[in-house]
Each structure stands twice: as structure tokens, then as C-alpha cells.
What we know:
Blueprint: H1 3-11, H2 18-46, H3 51-80, H4 82-106, H5 110-138, H6 141-151, H7 155-168, H8 172-199, H9 221-224, H10 228-258, H11 262-295, H12 297-313, H13 322-351, H14 358-386, H15 391-424, H16 455-464, H17 471-481, H18 486-495, H19 501-513, H20 517-527, H21 532-542, H22 552-576, H23 580-603, H24 606-616, H25 621-632, H26 637-647, H27 652-662, H28 673-680, H29 687-695, H30 704-711, H31 716-732, H32 734-743, H33 746-757, H34 762-770, H35 780-783, E1 791-795, E2 800-802, E3 807-808, E4 810-816, E5 819-823, E6 826-831, E7 836-837, E8 846-847, E9 851-854, E10 858-864, H36 865-874, H37 876-898
Antiparallel strand pairs: 1-10, 2-9, 3-8, 4-7, 4-10, 5-6, 5-9
Helix pairs in contact: 2-5, 2-7, 2-8, 3-4, 3-5, 3-10, 3-14, 4-5, 4-8, 5-14, 6-11, 6-13, 7-11, 10-11, 10-13, 10-14, 10-15, 11-12, 11-13, 12-13, 12-15, 15-25, 16-17, 18-19, 18-20, 19-21, 20-21, 21-23, 22-23, 22-27, 23-24, 23-29, 24-25, 26-27, 28-29, 29-31, 30-31, 31-32, 36-37
Amino acid sequence: MTFLARWQQLLGIRPEEGRSVGLFFLHNFLLGIGTILVYVAANVILLENHPETSLPLAYAASALAMLGAGQVYAHYEHHLGLQKVAVRVLLAVVVLMAVIGVLVAFGESVAAAVAIMAGYRVIYLLTNLEFWGVSAVVFDVRQGRRLFSVISSGDMPAKALGAVLAVLVHHHAELLWLLLLAFGAYVGALLVVQATGRSHQVEVRSAARAARAETVATPLRRWLGSSRLVGAMCLSMLLLAAVTTGIEYVFFINVKEQFHDQAQVMRYVGTVLALTYLVAMLLKLAVTGRALDRLGPRPVLLALPLVLLAGFALFGVRNELGQSGLLLYLCGLFLVQEVLRRAFFDPVFLVLFQPLPAPERLQAHTLAKGVYEPLGLGLGALLLLALPAGLGWQIGWMLLLIAGAALLLYRTYGHYLAELSHAVGRRFGEASLPEPDPLTAANNPADQNRPAANEAEVAALVAALANKKSRAAATTQLLALGKMALPALCASLQSAGAAEGAVVRRVAYICGQLPTPKSRLALVQLARRPELAYREAALRALRYHSASPTDAPVFRELLGQELRLAQQLLHGQASSGAGPLHHALGYELKRLEQRLFGLLQQLYPPQPIRDAQRHVAQATRERQANALEILDNLIDRPTYQALQTLLELGSPAAKAARFDRLLPGAPAAFARLPEAVAERGETTFTDWTVSLALRQLPPARTHLALLQPHMASASQLVREAALAALEYWAATRPADYQAALTENPDLAALLMHHAATAHISAADRVAVLQRTALFAATPPNVLSAIVPIMQEVDLKADEQLFAQGDLGNSLFIVYEGQVGIFTGTRQLATFGPGDFFGELALLDAEPRSATARALAPTLAFRLDQEDFYDVMEERPEVLRNILRVLCQRLRRQNEASRGPV
């Protein structure tokens, strides 16, 4: 690993983000140089011209200038677009630098000093709005948490350098050289912004969202935004800005009183600033991201006001410190305030805006930085001018304001979670499951006169669920019986064998629609069974039940089991290479993710979990990031870190290593992957994964006890793979096979029967489906469920498959030969090996619009609608892929009918 890669890994920068972070870091570095040099020039002049009055006046004038500049920026940001505004802001800053240079060269009055400070504040505001505006639309909320502290640290070394230069300044002529350097830095920042625009799409775009349940009153939206989150953050920014203004003032004034010589004043102030910026940079790079990961936004956001409250409380011991001790206290207060604000508060404060839609996000930035921070600066100046000049009065009002800011920031976190929920909610209407509708005699007047069914009748209805023709009617009748059917339904769940998956899924569905304590208990017990397919069915049904705290320990235990299995699967993937078994384990991990979300719905508020689950699979980065962020703030840290590892991109080896850190203990069960999968079998895995593992068993580790259970599997895939493994074992280890044959003489007959009856194997049928466009994007783990319903159709040349007008209820896939589609004598189409036709019949049985006839001896597979519905019930991915292919065909037909545009 290169030095750069190690450095990026240490800072949490992913390889694909390296260029972006570098550009933004350089951008902020150049802005920092320019801004701190103007700040130094302004303070050198102000501290020479009666700072007791000139500083508050400068603060007030700066507030007015910033308010005006903020409004101008907001206007052009709305009308010109962010990319153009970013360039024009820096051009305006370059012009403003020239004006400040003239003031420094020729103005030595208090008015000139105040104007220079106001110019500095306007430059600070505009560059801040430009930089964070571009950052807000380039990075999403998850990247913001990891990267905002890194990219915002770019100005720290620049400001430390500027503070050191302040120590060396002894004459106004030297300030002009500093301003010239600042001018060059802003020109460099302009070039970096243009490079950023060429490599990133700096656009204000966001997906449409549903209306907020709670919003700000319409007359106040211009000043507080549409979201309560924005209002709370802006008001807290106002109070904090007033407090930081007061702290800066009392620190500068006391330094001036302690050191009467101007050179000493600048040396002391410059040293403190340099130390502040260096410490802030180190904390930003090394601590902020990790603190956010471990603690979450609220504690990190509250660190500044709470520490300042503690600092103000220490003011009572000032009389024991003396004059030099008082200066040391104020210096510490200033340093801590600056470090916490720059290293923790500012990056996290900006992250909280990220769940907002992009236009609101930029409006919120502009409000907070362009309106409320200047208002806070003005409020601080007003209080400094209006209240008595004593330090006790100044500490008093700052104490009150910081307490109010702490309260607002504490409530801000709740608004942040609400905004995250809104970001991942459905666009239209409320994202909620339909209410269960148990048609019981107790709550359905139409059924109050229905005679009660006896136990035998209910048992017969439950048994009828296994029959394709009777299951729909049986389901309806069992739902109508309601609570009367529950004893038989619960008993069937408890006694169900491993081969009764279809019946268990339907019984679980009915129990889900009858939400009573008894049906919930039966489903919880089903979820605890070792068969993971049964756990999936139980978790789907439990979505219709209210969560019960008494069941939480059960679901915590199951959650732990699933995470351990994920650890083992990742180790298995890492050791399997890029082959079919590797991809099969990837599908098993996807199933595991779905079970994890089902378990989380039983442990946490279910609706936000469902919304997050829906959005983590979205293609848009912003939706994925918002979904991960709400999970991060909703579920416990270890579970979130494990889930995040599964959901995010990365190599199986890297993910397995992270799981090893989260779940200590080596996953020994998957040290030998094929054997481990074979031992667990279909209890844990799909039949496709088991079949692949059986075919890859090394002969040295194969034994009859491992293969024998799979020879009796209900899955044709697994049976064939077990027999193939047995044949390979017999050929490569004849002595072991002969010993097994002595104990089990039926083995030879079993192998002979398998060889004699083999035609088109189950594995070959999966391969046929994979070569078919309709199923090409469907994982083979899912296609294996279609194999049992594939019926062979042998056709002679010119033999008719179906006639025009026949009721269509089957899809056909050509394996060998050719089939022609005719209307009368006119041939419309020809289908060869791998082609399919009649797919609409799977979804809607209608009369055939044409005749199908074999053009040569043909072997095809037929999939009937009724059988296919069963598969779709078990594996919804099949339906999704069919709909996707049909939509693509319809789109192509529409484009063809419109012709060239």
C-alpha cells in the first residue's frame, strides 16, 4: 500500500474520493490564507485605534455589511446557479481585496479600521457560503460525516501561517505585502473552483418528497426555512455567534490592557491564534470523524456550548488568579471556544443540513451564515455597547445566551431525525403497511351467523393449503374463521417439517393477518427454528403485528446469530475466489440482509426501518446516504456498524476483517467452505448454493455421512449434486467407497439409476434459464426455484404447440430446434435455442393472438401460470425481473412506433 493510500485510509477517505477531497482541501487552504491575512491586517489597525469602542463598532458595521452581502448572494445563488455564483463570488472577493488594500495604504483612522474589518467579514462570509455551498451538493450526508472535518481542516494550516505572520508585522507597509499574498491566494482558489466544476456536477438537484407532517408557518419560511431543523439551527447560530463575539472582544481588550506595546500585543495574539489553528487542525483530522462515529451528532454538537458553560462557571475564581491569571483564563476560554467551534461544531453543524433537499440545504446555509451569524455578531456588538463595561456583566449575558444555545441544539437533534425520516419516506402518502383485516366472527357482522367450524374441518382447510387448486379458497375460509382457526394454524407451524415450506409460508401469512398474542407467539417460535426460510416467513408475517418488548431478548439473540453467519459467509466469500460459489454466497448475504431488517423492525420503530430498507437499495447516492444515516441514529452502534459493512461496497476480505473486529472469535465453521455449506445444507442455504458446494467437495474430506442426507433432498438440484459428488468420491477414493458400499449396498443401485435416468439435469435447466433474456439478470439461487416447474415438451417437425384463440396460460423456452409464430400462413417470428415466447400468459391468461408450430424437431420447456405464481410467492425477485424485461420491450415498441424524432 502506498503512503498516499495509507494516509487516505487513516483519514477515512475512499480511493474514489481522493481527487475530490484534494480539490476541496486545496480550495479551503487558499481561502484560509486569503481570509487570515485580511483578518491580521484588520486587527493590527483596530488594536491601534481605541479597541474598546472601535471593536464593537466594527462588529456592528460588519453585521450590517454581512447581512447585505448575504442577501445579494442568496439572490444570485437562486437565479444564476451554484457553479456560476462560486466563480463570481471569488471574482468579487478579488475586487474587494483591492479596495481593502487602498484603505490599508491610505486610511489610518478608526473609520478606515472599521471599514477594513467589515470588508474582512464580508470576504469571510462570501468565501464560506461559496465553499460550503459547493461541498453541500457534491457530498452526501454520509460523506459529509466522514469528510467535512477533513476538507474544512484545509484552512487551519493556512490560518496558523497567517497568525505567525501577524507576529512579524510591525508596520503598515508590511500589511500591503500580506494583502498582495492574500490576493494571489484568492486567484488560486478561483482556479481550483473551476477545476472542481469540470470534474464534478455542481447542480442543485434533489428527488421530490412528500409534504412534511410538521413544518414552519408560511409567513416565517423566508427567515426560518421550511423545516423546523433549519429554524432551530439558525437560532442557535445567532446565540453562539453573539457569544463568540463577546469572547473575542474580552480576550483582545484584556490583551491590550496587559501589553501596552503594539508589537507585544500582536505577538501574544498571533501565538494564541497559531496554537488554536494547529490544535483545531489536528483534532479535525484525528478526532472529529471518530467522535461522530462513536458518539453520534448530538454529543459532538453539544460539546461547544456545554464546555463554554463550564468555562463561564469558572469565572467565579477570577479574584484568586490575579491580573495575569485572569488573562490566562480569558486566553484559555478563547482558545477552547475557537478549537471546539472549528474542530467539532462547524463540521457537524453543516452535516445536519445534508438530509434536506438540495435547494433547502443551500437556503439553510445562506440563512445560517448570511443572516443569523451576522445578526449574532450584531447582537454581540449591541450588548457590548449597551450594557455596562464590566467583565462580570459581559460574562453574565454570554452565560445566558450559551445556555439558550445548548437547549436549542439539544432539540435540534430530534428535528434532524425527523428530517431524515422525511428524506427516506415515500414521495406520495404515508409509507405504512396496510392494516391487517382478520375477518373474524367477532368483528365482522356479516359472519356472525356463520356456524362454528369443528377441529376436523379446520384441519382439513389447513391441509388444503398444500393443494394448488384448493389453497386460495382455503386461505379465504381460514381468514374468515379468524380466531377459531388459530389453534390448528399454530399447531401446524409447530409440527411442520423441513419439506413443508410452501404450507408454512401460507400459514405464517394467515397468522400475520390475525394479530393476536397467540398467533404472534407462534410466529416468534417459528422465527426461532433453525430453518432460515421459516424465519423469513415468520418475519414477513410479524410486520403486521405490533412489536412486544417481552420478545426483544429473542430477537436480540437471533440478530446475533445472523451477524455471526454474516461473518462466516464473508470469510467464505473471501476464500472462495471469483467463482459460482462466491456469487451464490453473495446472494445468501442479500437474504441475510433482509432478515436483519426484519429483526430490526421488531426491536426499533418499524416504519423508519422499512423506509431505510427501501432506500439502501436505491441507485441514487443521496437516498442511500440518508437511509444509512437514519439507521446510524436509530439502532445500536455495533449492529449498525455490522449492517453498514454489509451494505457498503468493499471486498469480502475487508468486510470479513471488519466483522472480526466487531465480533471477536474466529469463524472456524467456514475454514473449509464447501464442507461447511454441505454440513448446514438447506436449513441455512438455498439449494443452488448447497449443490455448488457438494460438487466442489474435495475427495479427501468427503464421506458418506456428509452426502447421505442430501441424496434424499426434495430438491432435484441437491440430489443430483450429491450423487455426482458420490460418483467422484467413488472414482477417486475407491477404498473408502467400497467400505461404505459394504455398509450400504443400495448405493450402487442408486448410482446406476441416476445414470440411467439422467436427461436434462437440474443444473442444465438453470443454465437454460440464465441464457434466456427474461431471466438473465436473475441470480441462479432464485432460478433454482423455477427448475421443478419446468415441464419438457417434445415436438416433431411441423407439430403445433398451440393455436390462435387457445387460452394462453404458459410461457415457453426453446432448448433445441426452432418454433415459428404464424397468423394463418404468414410467419411472424422465429424462435431458436434460448428464446422465449408467451411470457404475457404468466401474468394474464388471454386467448393466443397467433399459432405456434415447430419448424424442426424441437425440445422446449413449459412454465405454467399457476405453478409460476407459487414461485413468485416464494421468490419475488422473479416477478421483478419479468416486469423489468416487459417494460423494456414495451418501451422499445413505443419508440419504434414513434419513429425517429
